[in-house]
Amino acid sequence: MAELLAAASRDRVTVRTTARAEAMAVLTGEGATVAIAGTDTVTVSGLPAQRIAELLGRHAVPFSELAAHRASLEEAYMELTADAVEFRAEPAVREA
Questions:
Q1: Cβ(45)–Cβ(12) under 8 Å?
Q2: Exposed (0-12), middle (13-18) or buried (19+): which is 4, by Cβ within 10 Å?
Q3: SS3 letters for 48-89?
Q4: CA–CA separation, 4 vs 66, rounded Å?
Q5: Residue partners of 68: CB distance under 8 A and separation at least 6
Q6: How many other C-beta atoms can be found within 10 angstroms of the C-beta atom of residue 12?
Q7: Model confidence, pTM
Q8: Hey, which residues does 68 pair with through a beta bridge?
Q9: Distances (CA, A) of 93 to 85, 86, 87, 88
Q10: From CA 17, how far away is CA 45, in angstroms rounded?
């Protein structure tokens, strides 16, 4: 179960900062993938939380929260079954 949840979490880290643009520039410059999650929140993948904290501190980018994403069982299930389809639509046949 722990391995399944870890795989679904995909090493994502949530960062809350009042300097979103600066944080994004620093983290993408180090090879991370950064996505905007809210007005003062970004989701980071590709760097561990400890490295993110080090980088933001070194560049004097303020942050108030740094949390590793933990996938729920529902997220893990949805990821596992994303390609499974029980019913498929048939193409419409036009009659002349």
A1: yes
A2: middle
A3: CHHHHHHHHHHCCCCCCEEEECCCCHHHHHHHHCCCCCCCCC
A4: 23
A5: 9, 11, 12, 13, 14, 49
A6: 19
A7: 0.66
A8: 13
A9: 22, 22, 18, 15
A10: 16
Residues forming beta bridges with residue 36, ordered by sequence position: 42
**φ, ψ for residue 23 (rounded to 5)?**
-60, -45
Residue that is written with structure tokens 């939380």 in the block? 49
Closest-CA residue to 13 (of 39, 48, 38): 48
Residues 56-93: tens digit of each pLDDT: 999 999 999 998 867 667 776 777 777 766 666 677 67
d(CA 23, CA 6): 25
Task: Count CB neighbours of 26 within 10 A.
Answer: 19
Q: What angle do CA 23, 27, 33 make, to 5 degrees?
A: 115
If we measure between CA atoms, which residue out of 75, 83, 84, 44 comes closest to residue 61? 44
